[in-house]
Amino acid sequence: MKTYEEAAFKGQGALAHVKHYVREALTNARAGKLVGYEAMIINALYMNISEVAGELAKLCDGIGIGYFERGDGIMQFSLRSRNEVDVSTIAKQLGGGGHRNAAGFQLPVAQGRLFVDRVIGRYIGPQIFPESFTSLFPTNQLLHFQ
Q1: What was the pLDDT predicted at 15?
Q2: Which residues contact 87 (CB under 8 A, 6 or more apart)?
Q3: In the beta sheet, which residues pair with residue 77?
Q4: Domain with 40 in it: what CATH number?
Q5: In this structure, how many other beta carbons lie within 10 angstroms of the beta carbon of residue 133?
Q6: For residues 66 and 77, is the Cβ–Cβ distance under 8 A?
């Protein structure tokens, strides 16, 4: 039978692995804005997306956004905040849910990629945005889905 000390030792190793992954993942994050707040966004593995998004929120003192594309054509997003931003209101607006400092939503890949482009301020030509983007990215340049 394993002892408490053995379990704790193995747990420390697992935690060190997660922390190492998060540190490395953060080097690929992009800065942006969402609902007027500083944001950082990253495409990362599902496995530690919550931890990565949480660290991004700390780094920018705003909103941390982690996302990944699933095999079924859906992009899944994880939102984290460490300040007064209620990320659950953002997630709910996009069909998701959660809590004040931890929430998520999913979008079809085409809409998810547009969302990422808007967060980082990347302009890739005229685009049509879903109505739910309007209050997230207030601009007169957004065209809406019919």
Answers
A1: 60
A2: 63, 79, 80, 81, 98, 100, 101, 102, 103
A3: 67, 105
A4: 3.10.310.30
A5: 20
A6: yes
Q: Look at residue 95 in the predicted model and tell me its pLDDT.
A: 94
Domain that holds residue 55: 4-144
pLDDT at residue number 66: 95
Please list the rounded mean pLDDT of every run of 10 residues in the chain (146 residues): 73 66 74 91 87 90 94 96 92 95 95 91 68 64 37
75 touches 65 (CB < 8 A): no
Beta bridge partners of 99: 102
Which residue in the block uniquely carries the two structure tokens 């190492």? 20
Burial of 121 (0-12, 13-18, 19+ CB in 10 A): exposed
What does pTM read for this prediction?
0.79
Domain count, the chain: 1
Instruction: Give the separation between CA 125 and CA 143, rounded to whole angstroms.
Output: 12
User: Which residues, in sequence order, are CB contacts of 95 under 8 Å at separation 6+?
Assistant: 105, 106, 107, 132
